[in-house]
Amino acid sequence: MANLTLVQAINLALIQEMERDDRIIILGEDIGVNGGVFRVTEGLHKRFGEKRVVDTPLAESGILGTAIGLAMAGLRPIPEIQFEGFLAPAYDQICTHAARMRSRTRGALTVPLTVRVPIGGGIHAPELHSDSPEAVYAHQPGIKVVMPSSPYDAKGLLISAIRDPDPVIFFEPKRLYRAFREEVPEDEYTIPLGKARVVAEGDEVTVISWGAPVVQCMTAIEASGKSIELIDLRTIYPIDTQTIVQSVRKTGRAVIVHEAPKNCGLGAEIASRIMEHCFLYLEAPIQRVTGFDMTMPYYKKELEYLPEAERIGKALAEVAAY
After folding, report:
1. What is the pLDDT, as a whole number, of residue 133?
2. C-alpha R_g of the chain
């Protein structure tokens, strides 16, 4: 076991998969010589060479278009988009081509690529560097969407994403990159995509979250003094509905926490599924603790926008007391 940060866990997963499979190519802005803006790919250029770790121009559509072509030709590309806000120029390539190629060619061509993307706020970055657009891509059939909340999960989920036969967007919560360390096996292992993790067991309230807010949920739960079950979704799409339903049927109460704005956020989809499968079990209205329906504010107000432990704790108390 190694005691790793999330950055180190992802770096280790990339090294091990590149050593295992010479079809894997990494490409993106500054990911080679500089090791990426967050140093996630540090050391890979020297280790594997410029033909497998490729510095690209600042052109997100070009990066994804090239990666799609490489994947269709039999390689396993891992393009990096520096920040989640820069995914927008590549939306057409991802959703019009990568997501649809298997269907379009009736299975003759597939696109086994993994798009690595830092996501979320909490690091005082400028505009277009702190958003949470996961629901946009979860809405697109043909793409899997993943977001780990811990170093252990990051390594296992990334290896599964790289080996998946279809496109995966792998969102990495930048607030957690170096927030804490965790024991991570040095040997390779996988965590199945589409399977949530029960972080803490309880019987009074179910909390459902993913990414950086999971840590805030844990803080709020510890301060609440209540028996609360915390589910880390891990895979945004496909959603592990079964784990959510089993928990809510046990607790009768649910709070959903995410950084993205409330309007049309993934929490709305989860709440709808809970209503479909757990209506007669509910003891209180479902609550959502989210970002606000506005652009992420600048530094001074950033933490007021994010679903911090205080706001989560208030929702837990209200739902438990209903």
Report:
1. 96
2. 19
